[in-house]
Amino acid sequence: MASLASRVFLPKQLSLSARLLHTSRAALAIPKGPEREEFIDQGSAKILKSMEAWKEQTKTGLSSVTERFERLHEIYYGKDRDFTNYPPVKMQPHMPKVRLGILPDSWFQAFYNKTGVLGPYILALGVPTFLISKEYWVLDPEGMVLLVSVPALIAFVKKYGQRIKEMEAKKANELDESVIVRPIEAAKDSGRDLVRLTESQLQSFPIVFEEAFKAKREILDLQLEEEYRRRLAEVARTVERRMTYHVELAAAKKSFQQQHLVQWVLDGVTKSITPQQEKEAIQQCIRELRALAPKAA
Amino acid sequence: QTMGILDALFKQGVGSYHRNYDPRVHGFYSPDRNYGCTDTRLLETKVKDLPAWLGRRNYNPIAICQAIGRAYWRYNLRWISPKNIGAPLLAQACFFPMFIWYVVKYDEHAAEAHSKYH
Fold it and tell me: Which GO biological process entries does UniProt record here (chain B) (predicted)?
């Protein structure tokens, strides 16, 4: 009782150690001095080249699959194909239907048009009775065994058929999983692990380590510069505030002094005016107005 | 010139696909079909055509063995190869051999009924 799952075509698993060895060996010897920049550029170029080569490899694998498919499709589904007499056969997932647990349903369907539903059952009961009654079939102990064991078998199948079916289905699913599903999942996991490992390994390569160190120092310098400028700005702001304070303070003092002085002078003058001086000033004003009046008229 | 055993087998088509088999016409090869036979099936022939039909058959013993192989594959592809199978297979394997063996060995064990002393 085997399924055809064993004929499946499996994907290859990636080899981690080979990839890591290849990349690590390339990155060990780094020259110092003027050749350093060139070497780093070459190293990155080499890594890029190897990645391009890997891409080409995978592309050819895919293209061969498509070529094979096209070639076979042309053969098996071309113009000459006879679909009426030789239709494409698919593997059925289940057994054919079965009556009484033993006999296929198609045998019963053949009788249906002529005799109806009970035809084959009557045949199965009537023919043995006829043969036994006419002594064409002499019943001996073997015959009795047959007559008794057939209903016993049918009862066994009716009782335990479902359980056996479930067990077999579980076994078939187990086979499918172990041959198809798990290898693909394992390949996917190995790919993900490879990606993670290469990323972590790249951090430890000397070129990457030094360049990363430089970059980190640059970042720190920039941060320090930012802090310095911020503090400069704050200093300028506080100094300006204090200067304006002093300026405004002096201006306020000055204006207050001016006002006070002016007011004091005015008050002094108004206080010093005696009533006699006032009278004389008013009379002088009247005399001047009288003198001016004829001129206006 | 006398024919060797292998020559007879190869002439009948043993060891290779049928000489009429063409994937462009017949599609994927299935071992339960006879690719060399364009005759009507036995259950679809009229009763009056039966003798003529029987005359057209190939009674070469190698062809009989091939027919038995095709019958085995027909049973296999329908009852054993599918993914979900169950108890009917077991019951069939018990019932049909029992019945056939009883019929084939009838003469041997029928004496028990007729004999006076067992």
Answer: proton motive force-driven mitochondrial ATP synthesis
